[in-house]
Amino acid sequence: MSQAQPITSSQMSPEEAVRRVAHARELLLKEVHKVIIGQDEMIEQMIICIFARGHCLMIGVPGLAKTLTVSTLAKAMHLKFSRIQFTPDLMPSDITGTEIIDVDPTTGKRSFRFVHGPIFANIVLADEINRTPPKTQAALLQAMQEYEVTVGGKTYPLEQPFFVMATQNPIEQEGTYPLPEAQLDRFMLSINITYPTRAEEREIVMATTQTVRHEIQPVLTGRDILWIQQLVRQVPASQHMVDYAVDLVRATRPKDPPSPDFVKKWLAWGAGPRAAQNLILTSKARAILHGRFAVTADDIRAMAFPVLRHRIFTNFNADAEGVDVDQIIEKILEVIREPTYGETIPVGPRPARKVVSKAPDASASSAVSGSPQSEPAASPIPSPPPAARPTPIPQPITPPTRNPSQ
């Protein structure tokens, strides 16, 4: 396997950084689609989650290439990959590792030696995470939140970058343990994986019943991903975009007086502040992946579903009427509109836009020799407000001491 070429540089403008990240996205998609047919939305959301330094929960029936997609991404990013099959008898030490007695063959002296578990990898696939008891599920909490594990009173840091990608079967409920809300909130995104189209399924059958095998080439390194993660956090999000994200999250809480009536009717409880944080972070990652150095309302609307769907919970009214979480999120997006600069929009129906004509300013018209003042041409890349101008591009990060090989 060839070594990926680094995309970082010590001197780089924001435009060049955006161009390189967008190009890296194209290269990643090209490599992944060598073995994965379709599932474009799932793949893009997984890349967004990685670049935003989060963890994702993938929900789908068996046979939709969840495991294969994660392992293929690990190869394309030149990262160490580990898979944990969650079963009812899995113990926390099977994930984090354990201490064993080591005997020196020359002196006969005994000492404890820590044996690293499968959690010590860059990308960890927690396969069927809801099949293991809560005690074992909780072993992931410290690793997902603090990027370290504690065994025998000693704390061991995890190698960066580090991601947990968990899978879950939505159909089979017998013998499973639902994830507690505290652990669900640790996942940045919840990705629903659907069946492929007829054309995609036909292509899958043709590709997987032959002897041709495609070799995945690494196009990124761990150093590149750490640099992109820093770059994502420097993408500016204007105040009115932050207000829009906060308004969407607050509208999911049925006990808040401004929340819509259908939220009070159908939801038991809504999302917490971490949802707004993740909504802005993933919107920044999506913006830069699409070649923009500013967050737009389209980015927030696109990421609202995977960010919110595992953080809001329906009640008996919604279950009786057959209303699911995605339908409620869609209605929230319809009634909450994005505010403009310096404007606060109360929660409620989206008002109709009014066109107001204003008489030209006499002083402004005289300054241009009597000609009417024209509107400036719209830029293809939205400009942030003056207070949110992009800061200098971060310097490349020193690569980890150990470069994992595939």
Concise synopsis of the structure shown:
With 406 residues, the chain is α/β, with parallel strands linked by helices. 38% of the residues lie in helices and 13% in strands.
Taken in chain order, the helices and strands follow as HHEHEHEEEHHEEEHEHHHHEHHEHHH
By CATH, the architecture of the largest domain is named 3-Layer(aba) Sandwich
Strand tally is 11
The level-1 CATH class of the largest domain? Alpha Beta
Question: In order across it, which strands form the biggest sheet?
Answer: 2-5-8-1-9
Spans with pLDDT under 50 lasting ≥5 residues?
Answer: 342-406
Describe the structure.
By secondary structure, the chain is α/β, with parallel strands linked by helices. The chain has two domains: 12-90 and 122-208 and 218-234, Rossmann fold (3-Layer(aba) Sandwich); 236-350, Magnesium chelatase subunit I, C-Terminal domain (Helicase, Ruva Protein, domain 3), CATH 1.10.8. It contains 16 helices and eleven strands. It has helices at residues 14-32, 40-51, 66-76, 93-96, 134-137, 139-146, 181-184, 198-208, 222-233, 239-250, 261-266, 273-289, 297-308, 316-321, 325-335, 362-366; strands at 56-59, 81-85, 97-103, 110-116, 123-127, 148-151, 154-157, 163-168, 189-192, 267-269, 313-314. The strands form four sheets. A five-stranded parallel β-sheet has the order 2-5-8-1-9. A two-stranded antiparallel sheet has the order 3-4. Strand 6 (148-151) and strand 7 (154-157) form a beta hairpin. Helix 10 (239-250) packs across helix 12 and helix 10 packs parallel to helix 13. 35% of the residues are buried. Mean pLDDT is 82; it is low at 342-406.
